[in-house]
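User: Quick sanity check before I run a bigger batch. Here is a single chain. Can you write out its predicted 3D structure?
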Amino acid sequence: MTARSQVGLALQGIAGSAFRSALIVVCALIVAGFVLATALLAQAAQDSLTRALDRLGADLVVVIEGARKAGNDALIMGTPTQAHMPADSTSLVARVKGVEAVSPQLFLGAIAASPYTAEGDLLVVAYDPRTDFTLEPWVKSGAAGDLAAGQAVAGSAVSVPQGGTLELYGVPLRVRATLEPTGTDLDRSLFVGFETAYELARASKAATDGTLEAPRGEISSVMVKVVPGARPARVAAAIRGEVTGSAVVASPDLFKDYRSQMAGLRRGLVVIMVLAVALSVAVLALAFSLAAHQRLRQIGVLRALGATRGAVVRAFLTEAEILALSGAVLGVLIAAAGIALFRAPLGHTLGFPFSFPSSGTLAVLIVVGLAVALAVVALAALIPALRIAGQEPATSMRE
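Assistant: Done. Predicted structure follows.
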C-alpha cells in the first residue's frame, strides 16, 4: 500500500463518520488548548516574579500600619497604595541605620473611562524625580529624573496624543518619558511630580467627576534601598522601631510567599491538564475502538489484496493524525487568542500580572501543545490499529 493510498484510505474513513471525526478533533483541540494555556499561565507566573524583582529597585516598602496588603500590591502588581502617612516619614526612614536611599510616592487616584488607556482605569501617582530609583530602569525613551512642573512619565499602555501632551481636568501634561512594558499596573500609570499632583488635585475637585486627592504633607509609601551587605529584615525592624505607626514589607519574605503561591498555581494547572488529557485519551480510545470494529471487513479485504500489517496500522494512524492536527491547530489558536484577549482579567483573577511571552517562547509552547495532542491521539489509536491489523483477513471479512 503506497503512501498516497494510505492517505486516501484515511480521508475515506474521516468522511465515512462525521460524528467520530468531529469527536476526535474536539478531543485534540481540548488537549492542545489545555497544554498551551497551562504553559502560558505558568510562564506568565514566572515572568511576573522576574519582572517584579527586576523592576522593584527597592528592598523594602514602608506604608502606614494596616496597609501591608497594599504594600504587597505595590511590589507585585505595581499597584499604588491609597493609605496615607506623614511626608516626614521619608526623612525618618532615611536616618535609620542600614538605609542607603529612600523615595516617597503618593497615589492620587484612578480615573475611570480615561481616553488615554484601554486597559482599565488610568492611575495617577506622584513621585520625587530627584530621589526615585524605581522608574528610571524602565524608561524606554526620555528621562524620568528632574521632572519639571507640568511634565509626566507615562506607562507603556498610556496613549500619548500626537505632540506628546495630554490633558487631565484641564491641566496640560507634557509627557517627558515613556516606560517599557512591565505586565503590571505600572503600564497604565501616569507619574507626575508632587507640585503637579497638587495642581491636578485642585483641578479634580472643581470637576463633577473628579477623583484625584493629593493632601499636602502626606504620602502613600516610601521606597527603601538598603546599603549593600545589610540584612533587609534587620533594617525593616529598625524602621518599625523608629517610625511610629509604620508597616514594612520586606521583599525577600514577600517573594518567598509569592513563589509558594505561584508553585501552588502551577501544580493546580498541571492537575487540571492531566485530568483533561486522561479523559481525552479515554474518549479517543473508545472512538477508535468503534472505528476499528466498523472497518474490520474493509481492512480484511485490503489484507487479502496484499496490504501488510504495517501499512494498515500506518493508514489508521494517518487518519488519526490528520484529525489530531486539525483539532490541535484550532486548540492552540483558540487558547492563544483567548489568553491574549483576556490577559488583564486573568491576571487580576489569578493574582499576578500577566504578560505574553516573546514570539520565540510562544512558538516553542505552541509546538509543545501540538506535539502533545498528536502523541495523545496516536497513543489512543495505536492499540485498536494493532488489533485490527493483526487479525487474519478471512476472520475480518466474516465479521
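Residues 3-50+258-398 form one domain.

User: Great, the batch can go ahead then.
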